[in-house]
Structures are given as structure tokens and as C-alpha cells.
């Protein structure tokens, strides 16, 4: 079970489909606010957007998405522009090929460039595409993210054919970063049981596109348990 913190407060309610329209974006923001999600996660090209003034909803924007194979200065500019347009948090994708090659200094430099462009209080999450990496690479990339000043490591874009989050990856990532960084699980979190399992493994944020269905499952599971 999740802690006393409401399940919705773990959620980055996500819309990253390339075919999403302006109406889709506005509906997703409204839904995130209605559901009480922590943030709404959007593509940079849809900015600026309007967050309801009555909501505490944060705005998360992806960077270098989804391949990560962008020049570091381009990622840095993309992130800085998003912050100028209202983003509170940046979810950047590492150069996955560099990680597979074991070029971890290059990965760290890439993250460091984005961190320099969006210093605190902007929250920087680093998407490592864990399903495409070996355990050794996951550990090394998490260490690179920590050394570069990131706030979170995040499992997945949700676009890679290797898959999304796994409990094994989240556990390994959390054991690597400890309490120094937080972990976001993204890709494949659809039910209350899955959400609870990822949170128990160490995730403090969940990237979810089907938040309404997940929270409906949460309500039904809680009622069935007699809470």
C-alpha cells in the first residue's frame, strides 16, 4: 500500500503523443488538475500552456525526447526555453547509445550541460531508458546523474521497444542513489497493485498517461479492502 500521501500526488500525468492536438493538451492539463496529480508532463513544442490558477499542479516538460541523441547544447537550450515558458521540472533523456557504449563521462557531461542551463529550483529528472541497459550500465548512469547534479533518475521514455519500467530496475536505481536522489518509474504503471509495487521498490514519482483509470482502480481497491 502507498503511504498516507494520496496516490494522485505521486503522478506525473503524461501526454507525449506526437499527434496530440492543442485540445488534447488543454484537456490533459484540466484532467491532471481535477485528479490532483503532482504534475502534468508535456512536450516542449506545446508551450506555453495555462495551468489552472486554483491548482497546485506543476508543469513537467521533456527534453531530448525520446531518443536522447541530441547535441548537449541543444538539450540545454530546449530545457532553458521550457523553464522560461513556465516549466517547473525537466525530464531529459540521456544519450542512450553512449551509455550502452560505456561512455559514462560523456553521459555525465550531457546531464551536466542541462543542469547548468536549468539550475535549482528547477527539478531535473534524468531518463536512463533502463530496459535498454545492463545492470552495470544502470548503476553507472545513475552515478553519472548524481555527479552531474540531477534530482531524479527516471526509468523510461515509454517509447523504447525494449519496454518501460521494471521493479528490478527501480530497486537497482534506488539502491544506487539512496536518499540522495529520487526515482521516477514510467512506462507500464496501470493498476493500484503495480503503483504500490513500484513505490515499495523506491519510486517517489510515477509517470502515467492513464491516470484516471489508475486512480479509479485505487478507489475500488481501497473500498474492497474496507478502508
UniProtKB/TrEMBL annotation:
Predominant location: cytoplasm
Root EC class: lyase
Pfam families hit by this protein: DeoC
Alphabetical keyword list: Cytoplasm, Lyase, Schiff base
Compartments (UniProt record): Cytoplasm
UniProt similarity note: Belongs to the DeoC/FbaB aldolase family. DeoC type 1 subfamily.
Residues annotated as catalytic: 91, 154, 184
Secretion signal, residue range per the UniProt entry: none
One of the GO BP terms on file: carbohydrate catabolic process
Reaction catalysis annotation: 2-deoxy-D-ribose 5-phosphate = D-glyceraldehyde 3-phosphate + acetaldehyde
E.C. number: 4.1.2.4
GO molecular function terms listed in the Swiss-Prot or TrEMBL record: deoxyribose-phosphate aldolase activity
Pathway named in the protein's UniProt entry: Carbohydrate degradation; 2-deoxy-D-ribose 1-phosphate degradation; D-glyceraldehyde 3-phosphate and acetaldehyde from 2-deoxy-alpha-D-ribose 1-phosphate: step 2/2
Its biological purpose: Catalyzes a reversible aldol reaction between acetaldehyde and D-glyceraldehyde 3-phosphate to generate 2-deoxy-D-ribose 5-phosphate.
GO CC annotation terms, alphabetical: cytoplasm
Record carries keyword Lyase: yes
Organism this protein belongs to: Pseudoclavibacter terrae
Matches recorded under InterPro entries: Aldolase_TIM (IPR013785), DeoC (IPR011343), DeoC/FbaB/LacD_aldolase (IPR002915), DeoC_typeI (IPR028581)
Protein name as annotated: Deoxyribose-phosphate aldolase
Keyword Cytoplasm: yes
